[in-house]
Structures are given as structure tokens and as C-alpha cells.
Design goal:
Elements (H helix, E strand, L loop, with lengths): L9 H12 L3 H14 L4 E7 L5 E6 L6 H6 L27 H7 L2 E7 L3 E9 L2 E10 L2 E7 L6 H4 L5 H17 L5 E6 L2 E6 L4 H9 L1 H5 L1 E3 L8 E7 L10 E5 L2 E3 L2 H10 L12 E6 L5 E2 L10 E2 L2 H16 L47 H11 L11 H7 L4 E4 L3 E6 L2 E6 H18 L6 E10 L2 H16 L3 E6 L2 E7 L8 H14 L2 H4 L4 H13 L9 H11 L15 E5 H7 L4
Parallel strand pairs: 1-7, 11-13
Antiparallel strand pairs: 1-2, 2-6, 3-4, 3-6, 4-5, 7-8, 9-10, 10-13, 11-12, 14-15, 16-17, 17-18, 18-22, 19-21, 20-21
Helix pairs in contact: 1-4, 2-6, 9-10, 13-17, 13-18, 14-15, 15-17
């Protein structure tokens, strides 16, 4: 009786394994380029014909192989990168699985030419997984792999390949992904003898410019370096440049991977700095101990499991949020976005008022209670040469740097710095201040409110009255003490007092209408606390066209720079536009 269980021939087993490793030409390109990188290549050249369906060729100048290693590399589970099971807990190489070459050779006409030093090398030819020849050849140090007629012996697989153009795009994306995290290596990609990419060694910003152009590169800002060996580095998009999020890449120890959850966390970190619906580009590099992540969870090595995912998530959000807090995340004057709507001043424009002289009653830059980090933030943007290290150093430094403040058209505050000029939208700035102060009230169980000398009696629509009843307790924590009075009427007995010109009735009516009927602003909020804080910030902030005294401008300025994200209002618009001395010199033809 013929046994039912049989051992598959090697070439059949390799074809089955190829289904996991070789999905399309781009998969072949990825595996071969990863091998070249692990071989220490400083230059990798990729060539495609017919999208890789006719031929894929990858050449490198890495360490190469001798004859024995070249033949062993075509056996399943053969690898130079793993010695024992414990090594799987601290993988640092890219192509560690040892299945790529035999899998590719099983579904193509395959050739391997390699040499470990200039002179004598080895040439191996395989067809459909069967060794055809292994010859001595003359060649320079490095390796060249050619895979022709992909899936020619597996017609059912070949039918699922897409057009040559689509396969070329996928292969190009695979090369770009690896080029972004191997900046010291030069890459080229040719399709049907036409050059698609030619990348020399570069910085990350330079490489992005090489691939997508200088406009994309200039829209990005550097993340602060990590503390010690752990942390997050890379580039993120300035909020005013955010559009559709087509270029969002994450790497762990120079290994590209896909994680939609981390992408959502980045979007969360951008909350209230971009208009809802826009998605910023980012190029993020996680620097972690190899043993803290498992890269062996997906056949294509596109996913990573982190041992302490909560720590990684916290580290990522903090790095992005910390960088967005700096003024340089806001647009310079020559790149400032067009506003969606402009509120025209209702009062006649005044001439700029000169600031009081230093030491003569001029407003202090930093309010009592500000932290050294907050003061250092402004010092960096203002061009200060010192950074305080102790809380007690704030006041002496503040006394040395008192900004000159002017109000322009009763709508903008101008602040001179050592590097140029900050133009602050007073309404947007106060929105940011009120939003963060209101959210802090919720965390601290409420805050001060002013008792109204004459309580407000307001008739509301059915939906507004229902919202007022539902949210009464939370509204009370931000200062609005309300009580039902029957027949869809409420009495407002107290209100917040965010500024001298605050109109409690108008603010409450506008807030209740927005909270009851919704708006793009509050609909994008995570919870009711944030809905109320956003609405109060928008409706209660100082308006454009409101004349401010010197003390009021100084107070707003100080409170803005004590917030977490001073450069952005709750709609995601900038609060600050920067005009540098370099830009002024360029405008006047001095450079």
C-alpha cells in the first residue's frame, strides 16, 4: 500500500515557501537589497525589465561569498546571520530568515555571481529550483543576482501579477523605503534602461529632497535627538504644510515596518495643530535595544512586536508633541498659509505703540509659575545665548530680555526678537491659552468663576436646552453656573472671566448652540471635556479688532508661551508667523 504521507521534493517545497516570501517582483527586490545591505554594500544598483516580470537584477559591492557559501546560500534555512535560537531574541540584520534565495530561485531562472575579493569568483545558475551549473568566474568583490522569468514555472501565480507600470511602482517603493533608512549607501534604480532613481549618500533631509524634491524636504522639521541610546529621531511635517499624508514612514533600528496604531498616535499628537482631516507626513526612527522587539512575526518582515509597547507609544507621542511646542513648527512669513476667513477690525487701526523701556515698568517676559523649560523655549526662538538650569535663574534672565510689543490693526501683536520678528494673531493665541487652561480646569476639578451681578435668563431651542441640562455639571467646572427655569429657559448665575472684554451672554449662547448642533471644531473632539474646552476657547477668546493695552498684550504673550503648543490654535491654524532677519535681508536685496 502506497503511504499517504510523503516528503516533498526540495524544488516543490521551495516553490511552496516562495509563496510566503515572493509575492511579486517588489518582494524579490526587497529581499535582494536587504541581503546587499547586510553584506555591507556601499552601492546597490537595481535594474528591472517589464516591471520585474521579465528580469530583476540587483548588484552590490558588499563582502561577497566564496564558492562554498554561494552554494549553501541556495539551501533552505541557510543563513549567515543566525547561529542559535537565542539569536532570534536580538536580531539586528535584515535578511535573517535564510529562505529568500532558494525561494526566488524556485520560481525563476536564477543566476548568482559573487566574489569575496577581487579576482576569482563563483557563478551559479538555477532554473525552477534545480541547480544547473556552478562555475569559477572572474569578477570584482561583491554580488550580482539576476532573477528572470518570474513565476514562469508557476503560471497560476504569474496571472496575479499586475501591469508592468504597477509592478515598477511597487519595486520603486521598496527601494525608496530601504534607501530612507540606509543613508550612507548609494542606490540606483533603472527600468527598461531608464533611470528612475540615482541616490548618493546623504542626510535624511537630503535624501527626501533627492526623492521627492526640495519642497517636501523644506516642509519638514527635525525631531529633537533622543536622551541616551533610546528615543525617537527623524523628521515630521510642519503643521501648516500638512495635506494628505502620502509619506508616512516608521523605522525601528533602521528596519522599515508598518504599524497603523503608531500612525494614529502621531495623528493624535498633532491634535489641535492641524485642521481635522489633514494628515502630516513623517519619517520616524525608533532607537531601541534589539532584544526589546520581535521582528520575526511576519513572513515579509513588515511588522514588529514590541516587548513594552506602552513605552514605545509614550516615547513617540512625547517626541512629536515636544517638537511641535517649539515656535519653529509654525510657518515663516514667506510660507504662511492663506487664512480660511479673515475677521476685519471693527475699530480704526492705531499706530503701533512703543514698548516701555526695560526696567521702567515693562512687562516681564515670564509669568510667575513658568518653568525653566518654557523660558528656554522662548530664549531659543528669540536668539538668547543662555538657557536657565535652575528655577531661580528665570527672573534675572527675564529682566535681561523684555520684548518690544506693538499691536497692529488691533488684531496682531508684534514681538521683536534677536532673530527677527514674531507676528502673533491675538485671537488665535488666546484660543490656545483658553483651551489649555480649560482642560487644566477639568483635570483639577474646576476653577474660579465670576458671580454675575445680574444673572442671565436665556430662552433656548429644544436641542440647546437638552444640551444645557446634560452638560450643566461640566459647564459649571469651567465657570458657567446654570440652573433650569422651565419652558426651555435657563438662568446663568456665574461665568468664566477670561479677559476684560468678555461677553458672557454671547459666549454662552454661541457655545450651547455649537455643542447642541455640532460643528467641525467640536465634532473632531475626543470627548465632552475637549468639546467644551474647544468651544469656550473659540467663542470666549479676545477677538480681532479689540484694542489691547500694553499690560494686556504682555499678559497674553506670557500666557501663550506657558502653554504646551503655543504655535497653534484649536482649529489647527498658526498663532504665530515668523519673520527672520535673513528673510528681511533677502526682501531688501541685502543677500
Amino acid at each position: 500500500m502506497t503511504p499517504r504521507i510523503q516528503i516533498l521534493p526540495d524544488h516543490v517545497a521551495n516553490q511552496i515557501a516562495a509563496g510566503e516570501v515572493v509575492e511579486r517582483p517588489a518582494s524579490v527586490v526587497k529581499e535582494l537589497v536587504e541581503n546587499a545591505l547586510d553584506a555591507g554594500a556601499s552601492r546597490i544598483d537595481v535594474s528591472l525589465r517589464n516591471g520585474g516580470k521579465t528580469e530583476i537584477r540587483v548588484a552590490d559591492d558588499g563582502c561577497g561569498m566564496d564558492r562554498e557559501d554561494a552554494l549553501l546560500a541556495l539551501d533552505r534555512h541557510a543563513t549567515s546571520k543566525i547561529r542559535q535560537a537565542e539569536d532570534l531574541a536580538r536580531i539586528s540584520s535584515l535578511g535573517f530568515r535564510g529562505e529568500a534565495l532558494p525561494s526566488i530561485a524556485a520560481v525563476s531562472r536564477f543566476s548568482l555571481e559573487t566574489a569575496s575579493e577581487d579576482g576569482v569568483g563563483t557563478g551559479v545558475r538555477v532554473a525552477g529550483g534545480r541547480l544547473q551549473a556552478a562555475d569559477e568566474i572572474a569578477r570584482r568583490r561583491g554580488t550580482t543576482v539576476t532573477a528572470a522569468g518570474l513565476f514562469g514555472n508557476v503560471p497560476a501565480r504569474a496571472k496575479f501579477l499586475r501591469s508592468a507600470a504597477a509592478e515598477t511602482r511597487a519595486a520603486s517603493e521598496a527601494v525608496i523605503l530601504l534607501a530612507l533608512c540606509n543613508l550612507q549607501v548609494g542606490f540606483s534604480l533603472r527600468s527598461n534602461d531608464r533611470e528612475l532613481l540615482s541616490l548618493g549618500p546623504a542626510t535624511l533631509r537630503q535624501r527626501i529632497g533627492q526623492i521627492w524634491g526640495e519642497e517636501e524636504a523644506s516642509s519638514l522639521i527635525d525631531l529633537d535627538g533622543p536622551d541616551g541610546e533610546l528615543g525617537v529621531t527623524g523628521l515630521i511635517q510642519r503643521p501648516d504644510e500638512a495635506r494628505t499624508g502620502r509619506r508616512r514612514f516608521t523605522f525601528a533600528n533602521a528596519r522599515p515596518f508598518v504599524d497603523r496604531g503608531l500612525g494614529r498616535l502621531v495623528d493624535e499628537a498633532y491634535r489641535t495643530t492641524v485642521v481635522p482631516g489633514l494628515r502630516p507626513d513623517y519619517f520616524l526612527f525608533l532607537n531601541l535595544p534589539a532584544e526589546s522587539m520581535d521582528v520575526n512575526v511576519h513572513p515579509a518582515k513588515t511588522e514588529i512586536r514590541f516587548r513594552d509597547r506602552e513605552r514605545v507609544e509614550r516615547m513617540l507621542v512625547e517626541a512629536v508633541r515636544r517638537r511641535l511646542a517649539r515656535i519653529s513648527s509654525t510657518p515663516p512669513l514667506d510660507r504662511a498659509p492663506e487664512p480660511a476667513a479673515v475677521v476685519r477690525p471693527t475699530a480704526p487701526a492705531e499706530a503701533p505703540r512703543a514698548a516701555a523701556a526695560a526696567g521702567d515698568g515693562a512687562p516681564a517676559l515670564v509669568r510667575e509659575g513658568s518653568t525653566p523649560d518654557q523660558f528656554a523655549l522662548f530664549m531659543t526662538e528669540a536668539g538668547g545665548d543662555e538657557e536657565p538650569s535652575e528655577a531661580g535663574e528665570i527672573e534675572p534672565l527675564a529682566a535681561q530680555l523684555r520684548p518690544e510689543l506693538w499691536q497692529l490693526h488691533d488684531s496682531y501683536i508684534l514681538a521683536a526678537t534677536r532673530r527677527g520678528l514674531l507676528i502673533i494673531d491675538q485671537h488665535s493665541a488666546h484660543e490656545r491659552v483658553l483651551f489649555e487652561e480649560t482642560m487644566r480646569r477639568f483635570r483639577e476639578s474646576g476653577g474660579e468663576a465670576q458671580r454675575l451681578l445680574f444673572p442671565l435668563t436665556l430662552k433656548l431651542s429644544p436641542s440647546e436646552y437638552s444640551a444645557a441640562e446634560e452638560l450643566a455639571q461640566m459647564l459649571g467646572r469651567v465657570g458657567f453656573e446654570i440652573e433650569p427655569f422651565g419652558d426651555r429657559t435657563v438662568i446663568v448665575r456665574s461665568s468664566p472671566n477670561p479677559h476684560e472684554h468678555f461677553d458672557a451672554e454671547r459666549c454662552f449662547r454661541d457655545m450651547i448652540h455649537e455643542l447642541a448642533d455640532g460643528s467641525p471644531l467640536v465634532d473632531a473632539a475626543r470627548n465632552q471635556h475637549e468639546r467644551i474646552a474647544k468651544s469656550l476657547a473659540c467663542k470666549g477668546a479676545i477677538k480681532a479688532g479689540q484694542s489691547l493695552s500694553q499690560d494686556e498684550m504682555a499678559d497674553l504673550f506670557d500666557r501663550l508661551f506657558a502653554t504646551e503648543l503655543p504655535g497653534h490654535d484649536v482649529h489647527g491654524r498658526p498663532t504665530i508667523v515668523r519673520l527672520t532677519l535673513e528673510e528681511l535681508a533677502r526682501r531688501f536685496g541685502r543677500t
